Structure formats: structure tokens, C-alpha cells
Amino acid sequence: MDLVPKPGQVVAAAGNLAQMMLYGGLADLRPMPRTMIDEGELRELYHYRPRPHGTEHGDPVLLVTPLAAPALCYDLRRGCSLVEHLVEEGRPTYLVEYGAVSFRDRALGLEHWVEQVLPAAVRRVSEHAGGRPVHVVGWSLGGIFALLAAADRPDLPIASLSVLGTPFDVRKVPLVAPVRPLFNLTEGGGVANRLYQTFGGAPQPLVRWAFQLTSVQKLVTKPLAMAVNLDDRDFLSQLEAVDRFVDRMTAYPGRTFGQLYHRFVRANGLVDGAMEIGDRVVDLARVTAPVLLFAGMTDGIAPIASVRAGVPLLTGAPEVRFEMVPGGHLGMLSGRQARSTTWRVLDEWFDQWSGHEEPPIGANPRRRHRCRESRALAR
Question: Which string of DSSP letters, residue by residue, matches 122-152?
């Protein structure tokens, strides 16, 4: 609101405040309708229903959730839902999520998602969509899962890969540096080892706290921001939806948490493009699908430099495109500005790589790098 609010602003603020007090909120939090089409161990695959009397066209899109984060990252609220956008565009839209992680899942490692969950989901989506290749979209850790699965199984029917907020070089993540001493208080990983051995993984409160730690400034200034924007229904709705997202974060399975810590955080294992999965090393150079990398301009979990480090690693991809977009770790995907930046770039990317034949397995076609650091901002 203005320093001296206009009459219209006062009326809007009063209306918003009344609705929050009487009805508990402003945001339209209805989930997009979906149907489960497949399931397995910590794998639930959903197809989002087309609009009434609408039709689906083009290659299907598979949204890959990261561990611990709920599928709300893709369906945050009506008006700021990537799922809603894709369905309205008529694209066949699917999502794979993992359900609630419990202590009994503590023995599951990275190989479960890379070797079983993702390949099964991609193949089932392709089958459900009439045998068409799949545009795979992964946010955060979901991007790592998608890339490693594509590198491990180049024969998967993948049309393209879109990876948002995935760090490849952990040394370029300032948030990690001050935390490392805490996890190395004793030999063998110290606190980290004790956490996943005692709790069977990273417990839900710790996961939620870690995500909130990346937005300390926003947490501190949130009451002031709400007061200043009390007349802005869309702004208040976004805050409400993000709070719900954070509250629904889940736990990490113990062995997976240990592998991520030791291989990804401590050893910076992805910086050279290869990571040990199961009994072998998976190299990102074996990815043969085109790859689109997104970096959020204010992302504290995956800063720009840490994401850009992935460009030279994907030597087998026919094209690697790098985009900088507004927003933090979640905002780049489901923020209010994402509607006119990230989503538009995704639409263009899907159209570009729909209906294209995949290069032969093992081939190294002429490769293109495109770094569009301001293009998305100019739209």
C-alpha cells in the first residue's frame, strides 16, 4: 500500500483481512484433479485430468518431485500452479511422487530412485500417452534424479530434460560452507551419521528448518511485508500457499540421506559429472536428450554459478540451454513471476523438442550451448 493509502487500497485491505479472519485464508488451494495410473515402492504416478471438454496434444510432460518436498511445488495454488498451466495448454501432464517416508524405508538408497522409480515412471507415462517420448521436468533433487536416470538408461523414451534449481558444484553454494564443520565434529560424518542412524533419515522438522534457513531474511521481514501488502490479494495468497508447502515437507530415507551427504555435499561428487550409484559410476556425459538448465537469480540453495557448472558436463546432449530467471529456490518454479518467465521458456522448449527423433544411443551429435541469462527477464 502507499504511505498514505488510497480509498481503494483501504477497502481492499479491509476485505482481505476480513476473509483471512473469517475463512482462514485467501489462496485458492484446490489441487488440480488427477488420477493414479501406477504405483510401486515409494512410487506414485499420477495423470492430471484434461480440462472439461478439452483435449490433450503433443508429447507428455512428467514432473519429478525431489525427496522431502511435497508435490505442491508443482501445484502450489490456482494461478501459480505449473500443473494448471500445462493442463490449460493441453499438454498431457503427469507427476511422480513418493508418498510418506517412514523408518522402515531407511535402507533405500539413491539407486532406488535412479534405477527403479524414474525409469518405471518414464516408461509408464510414454505408454499411457500412446508411446510418445516424455519431456521430463525435475526441480532441485528431482533434477539430479532425472539426469542420473537418463544417463544410466539412455534408451529411456525421453524427449527432453528440464532441470530447475539443481546445483552441480556444491563449492559454489555459500550456504553449505558454514554447516560443514557441524557435520564433521567427529570422524565418519559426525552429526550427519548420527542423525540418519538414529532417526532412519533426516526427520521432517530438520528438513523444514533447513529450507526455512535459506529464507531467513524473508521470515524476519514477513510481518512487515504482509502489512505493507495487505491490499494485494495475490501477494497474500502466495505467502499462504508457500507456508502450506513448507509445513508439508517430509523426511529423507536414512541411507539416501547418508549418500547425499557423503557423496554430494562432502565429496562434491557431481562436480566432474559422475556419481557412484549402486555398484557402478553414472556419468552425465551419457545423457543423450537435450537439456534445459534453470537458475534462480536469488536462489540460496542452488546459486547461479553452481547450476551453470553443469553446462560443460553434458557433452552427449544435442543441446544444453542455460536460463537465468527471477526468484529463489521455489519462486523460480512457482513464484508469481514464473508465470511470465520460467513457464514460457518451458513452453518454447517443449515445442522445440516435441516430435523429434532421439539420437542413436552412444552417438555424440553436433552439440549446441545456449546461455540466455536475460532473455527470460525481458518477456
Answer: HHHHHHHTTS--EEEEEETHHHHHHHHHHHH
The DSSP secondary-structure symbol of 378 reads G
- 243-288 pLDDT, tens digit each: 898 888 776 666 777 777 777 777 888 999 999 888 889 999 999 9
| Packing angle of the helix pair 7-23, 233-247 (nearest 10 deg) | 30
- Domain spans, the chain: 31-174+271-378
pTM more than 0.90: no
Rounded Cα gap, residues 223 and 228, in angstroms: 9
Contact status, residue 338 vs residue 80, Cβ threshold 8 Å: yes
> For residue 137, what are the β-bridge partners?
63, 162
**Residue 29 contacts by C-beta under 8 Å, 6 or more apart in sequence?**
77, 78, 240, 241, 244
3-state secondary structure at position 316? coil
CA distances from 19 to 16, 232, 240 (A): 5, 13, 13
- Which grid cell sits at 90? 493441453
List residues bridging with 61 in a β-sheet. Answer: 93, 135
Q: Summarize the confidence of residues 229-239 as an average pLDDT.
A: 80
> Who contacts 146 (Cβ-Cβ below 8 Å, separation ≥6)?
64, 118, 136, 137, 138, 161, 163
CA pair distance 102, 278, nearest whole angstrom: 22
* Distance in angstroms (rounded) separating the CA atoms of residues 237 and 334: 12
CA distances in angstroms from 212 to 60, 217, 247, 330, listed in the order given: 33, 10, 10, 11
The superfamily (CATH) of domain 31-174+271-378 is: Alpha/Beta hydrolase fold, catalytic domain (3.40.50.1820)
